[in-house]
Structure to design on (531 residues):
């Protein structure tokens, strides 16, 4: 609804304007009826309206004086319409300089008023569209400047633009807001992932209110396709929360309500006090993807609490760690168990297990990732570790314990074996054949990885690299293509075809068909001449 203010010193004219048409039906709402220009101006000093319809001749402040005050004093860009008698026409001409939409002769006619209001509505729609395009361009440019900072490849113009549009003051942290169940994510289509991420973004934006411009979803490779980025400043907690931790927990609870089927977490990067150090905060937040799996399960993981190490108290058990890396590389189960025991014995002897665990885990993860990169430099390192450690959550061992570390090391050794097999890339041909033969079955990336003895995370990566889309999207596209073929070449009912290509929900099948083929199955069949 566009907000309207009516201004006239004659009560019967105000009443007549109010009842002459159905304002709400036309998309307008009368929010104020003023009896003169001064009364109107006082209202506008405290409130915004979209349209002012005002008489010219009024006591205390006439219509022309009101228009001048609206444009010059208040600098408001609302739409203006003036009311005048024939003898006032010269005043109406003078009002044109204030960009009036039109003038209405008294007594106002219903059709004339409606025509004028529809002109205002058309102008407003054009303004809204153009304003939205401008906002999108400005946002895109801001994202590019943020990206320059995150990459550490920025110039002064990038920094100045970010500082101008974001209030980056005090303690600053980069935060990943992300889904915490990658096994669920890998079974979602790209469209479904985008939909979930949009829900997360919109919920986070509602929570942050005026700080919503600190959220990011389009930072290309700097934000995963299922994540939302957030630059937090400590002033945001303000007086509403006792601490940043309380704000983070409240924010997660709020977001979780919008996507109850997907567990949401926050990975909070290292605190910095200068925007130019954002790369350090960003990279530390990314590190938490892997390290969180060696901590007790939480909804908020903060770098300073989880990984900051008091070097004077922590001891690196380098010899035991190097032997463990070697045992993993050789897939020696006996040595893996023995070296993990030696590592934990070392840490317990030195005491301060928390700091020792953080330091030693960091060293171990870095070296294990190096082994994987040696086999395939293109792999997504953080995602691999996240998949690997997530799988262990279904086990019986608490995070960070000896048995947990043994299970992780043994699982990673198996993963390295898959990387070394030259057939791991060729296996996509076998999987493609499996899809062609069993596309109507309940195929999942996880079930295929088990059948062909390949790590599911690695399979997902090489699958997307070859086909340019996720496994789930590839399967959907294949099913719809097969359905289209049957629509043209058979007389089967649409419901039967849907079942045979793997869709047990007819409405879902139709929606997917429309999305990929651009029309309904029945229209597709008719266009092909099979009717």
């Amino acid at each position: 609804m566009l907000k309207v203010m009516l201004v006239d010193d004659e009560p019967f004219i105000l009443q007549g304007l109010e009842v002459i048409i159905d304002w709400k039906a036309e998309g307008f709402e009368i929010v104020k009826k003023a009896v003169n220009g001064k009364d109107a101006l006082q209202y506008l000093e405290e409130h915004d309206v979209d349209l002012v319809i005002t008489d010219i001749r009024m006591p205390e402040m006439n219509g022309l004086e009101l228009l001048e005050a609206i444009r010059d004093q208040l600098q408001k860009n609302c739409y203006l319409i003036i009311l005048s008698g024939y003898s006032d026409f010269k005043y109406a001409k003078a009002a044109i300089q204030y960009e009036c939409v039109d003038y209405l002769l008294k007594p106002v006619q219903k059709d004339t008023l409606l025509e004028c209001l529809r002109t205002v509505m058309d102008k407003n729609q054009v303004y809204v569209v153009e304003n939205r395009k401008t906002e999108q361009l400005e946002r895109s440019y801001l994202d590019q400047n943020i990206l320059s900072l995150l990459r550490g490849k920025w110039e002064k113009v990038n920094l100045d633009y970010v500082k101008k549009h974001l209030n980056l003051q005090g303690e600053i942290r980069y935060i990943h807001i992300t889904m915490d169940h990658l096994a669920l994510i890998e079974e979602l289509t790209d469209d479904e992932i985008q939909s979930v991420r949009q829900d997360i973004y919109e919920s986070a934006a509602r929570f942050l209110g005026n700080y919503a411009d600190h959220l990011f979803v389009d930072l290309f490779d700097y934000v995963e396709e299922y994540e939302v980025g957030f630059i937090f400043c400590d002033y945001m907690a303000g007086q509403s929360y006792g601490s940043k931790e309380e704000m983070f927990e409240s924010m997660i609870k709020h977001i979780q309500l919008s996507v109850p089927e997907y567990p949401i977490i926050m990975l909070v990067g290292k605190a910095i006090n200068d925007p130019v150090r954002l790369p350090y905060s960003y990279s530390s937040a990314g590190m938490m993807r892997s390290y969180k799996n060696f901590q007790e399960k939480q909804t908020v993981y903060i770098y300073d609490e989880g990984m900051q190490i008091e070097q004077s108290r922590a001891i690196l058990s380098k010899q035991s760690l190097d032997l463990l890396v070697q045992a993993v590389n050789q897939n020696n189960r006996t040595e893996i168990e023995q070296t993990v025991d030696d590592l934990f014995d070392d840490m317990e002897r030195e005491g301060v297990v928390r700091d020792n665990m953080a330091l030693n885990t960091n060293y171990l993860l870095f070296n294990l990732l190096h082994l994987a990169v040696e086999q395939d430099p293109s792999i997504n390192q953080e995602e691999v570790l996240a998949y690997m450690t997530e799988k262990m959550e279904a086990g019986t061992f608490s995070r960070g314990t000896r048995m947990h570390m043994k299970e992780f090391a043994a699982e990673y050794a198996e993963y390295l074996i898959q990387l070394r097999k030259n057939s791991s890339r060729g296996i996509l041909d076998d999987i493609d054949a499996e899809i062609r033969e069993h596309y109507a079955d309940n195929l999942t990336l996880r079930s295929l990885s088990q059948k062909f003895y390949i790590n599911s995370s690695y399979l997902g990566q090489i699958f997307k690299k070859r086909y340019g889309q996720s496994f789930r999207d590839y399967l959907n596209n294949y099913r719809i293509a097969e359905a289209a073929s049957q629509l043209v070449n058979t007389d089967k009912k649409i419901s039967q075809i849907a079942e045979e290509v793997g869709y047990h929900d007819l409405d879902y099948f139709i929606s997917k068909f429309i999305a990929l083929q651009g029309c309904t199955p029945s229209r597709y069949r008719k266009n092909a001449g099979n009717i």
Q: What stands out?
A: The chain has four domains: 2-126, 166-306, 318-420, 424-527. The first strand starts at residue 2 and ends at 7.
